[in-house]
Amino acid sequence: MDLFKINNLKKIYSLVSQIVPSVYAIGGCVRDSILGIIPADYDFCTPLPPEEIELCIKKAGRKPYLVGKKYGTIGFKVETEPSVWQYVEVTTFRHEQYLNNTRFPTVVYIKDLKSDIQRRDFTINALAWNIEDGLIDYFNGLDDLKNKVIRAVGQPKERFTDDPLRVLRAGRFASQLGFAIDPYTEKKAKECSFMLLKVSKERWMLELNKLLLSNNPRVGLEFLMRVRAFNWMIPELALQYNYNQNSKYHDFDLWEHTLRVVENTPKDLILRWSSLFHDSGKPFVATINPKSGVTNYIFHEKVSAEIVLKYAQYLKWPNDLRDSVYDIVKNHLKEDSILRPYDLKAHKL
């Protein structure tokens, strides 16, 4: 039985295997093809070392893209239709580890497919396929796909220790796919979330951007809060959890309000980062009115905007994202603010 609901992968595999022998389609492109989603990326793996992959590509008259060569990854383009080109990447079987407190992984090349698959993050991403063997599923990823579960390959603590970014990836996939996270995997993610401090901020941003642009960012953000990832990454957001706003204008605690604003906004990166940070200054300006007993948050928008500037530098945002989010957050209480309708909608039941 053909598991693929779309056939793009078979066609691209055929083109790639004519250039680089002994390849397997791996990871997201296999997962998405089974789910009926057109893959955003096409990744392949092979026992060939990077130098041989590069040589095969050159012999086929194609240009190799070498930016990932030090990690065993080489890209090139295949022509899927006349004048229609698809970028693909082929990676040598490998294992990754963080050593000596570095923020980027050390890569060790290995020889067999199962060992390569064994080091991957989640079972739904540990699926491989080629034309000869069909689907290769060592860790019951197909069952987890059917049951809509995100589960670590093997021992979750080992997977998160190998690459702590996987804590963020779990939340991102939950948001993108609408899957639940296996409870034991979540437990170990919480134990390991402090290790995110070993990971480069650029890699944080890649995952956070994808999460925020998903169809259901709430799911991933709630997961990151539960596993205490924000305690290590953006402590100002961690303060919002169960924070009673004590305000006649709000029915929700601060974190629930923030989540509702984020999910109400269109899938626009500037708007969703603005939503996430728009009330981050509230805990720092809170004062209780002695007459009414309610809490006021005067100038919280200004403090929130300063927090945006802090994290724009820390997370290495591009200038246009920094400037746009800063402006929206600083002015989000004004009548003509682009964020105001989504903010007001998240005030009351």
Topology of this structure?
Layout: H1 8-17, E1 24-26, H2 28-35, E2 43-46, H3 50-59, E3 73-81, E4 84-92, E5 94-97, E6 106-109, H4 113-118, E7 128-130, E8 134-136, H5 141-147, E9 149-150, H6 156-162, H7 166-177, E10 180-181, H8 183-192, H9 201-212, H10 217-226, H11 229-233, H12 235-238, H13 254-264, H14 269-277, H15 282-285, E11 287-288, E12 295-296, H16 300-314, H17 319-330, H18 340-345
Helix pairs in contact: 6-8, 7-9, 7-10, 10-13, 13-14, 14-17, 16-17
Question: How would you describe what is shown here?
Answer:
The protein has 349 residues and is of the alpha+beta class. Helix content is 45%, strand content 13%. The strands form 4 sheets. It has a 6-stranded mixed beta sheet.
Could you give the distance between the termini? 48 Å
Biggest β-sheet strands, sense, barrel: 6 strands, mixed
> If you average the pLDDT, what whole number results?
94
The secondary-structure element order is: HEHEHEEEEHEEHEHHEHHHHHHHHEEHHH
- Largest beta sheet: strand ordering: 3-4-2-1-7-8
Catalogue the unreliable spans.
none
Approximate shape: elongated
Supply Rg. 23 Å
Number of helical runs? Answer: 18
Structural class: alpha+beta
Fraction in helix:
40-55%
Strand content: 5-15%
Number of strands: 12
